[in-house]
Amino acid sequence: MIVAFSVTPLGVGEDVGEYVADAVRVVRASGLPHRTDAMFTSIEGEWDEVMDVVKRAVAAVEARAPRVSLVLKADIRPGVTDGLTSKVETVERHLAR
């Protein structure tokens, strides 16, 4: 499964990068395949391990912010591994035609 999620602290002002970095540290420490871009962090693994990482990432932000917003999108596809890479490669292959 691949989960794309965004954790946003609320009530801390406009500059939230420091708080988001706390969440990304949790993802990186998990050892699961992941990518972070300007809007989301994507993480790949089994349901329980991915959701545990998301929960801990939210808790890291929640520890410093009075309110937290979580946006989450999941691609649940049993038996597929390396989806973070293979999905992008498929699109790139089509673009190259």
TrEMBL record:
<dbReference type="InterPro" id="IPR002767">
    <property type="entry name" value="Thiamine_BP"/>
</dbReference>
<dbReference type="Pfam" id="PF01910">
    <property type="entry name" value="Thiamine_BP"/>
</dbReference>
<feature type="domain" description="Thiamine-binding protein">
    <location>
        <begin position="3"/>
        <end position="92"/>
    </location>
</feature>
<dbReference type="InterPro" id="IPR051614">
    <property type="entry name" value="UPF0045_domain"/>
</dbReference>
<protein>
    <submittedName>
        <fullName>MTH1187 family thiamine-binding protein</fullName>
    </submittedName>
</protein>
<comment type="similarity">
    <text>Belongs to the UPF0045 family.</text>
</comment>
<dbReference type="InterPro" id="IPR029756">
    <property type="entry name" value="MTH1187/YkoF-like"/>
</dbReference>
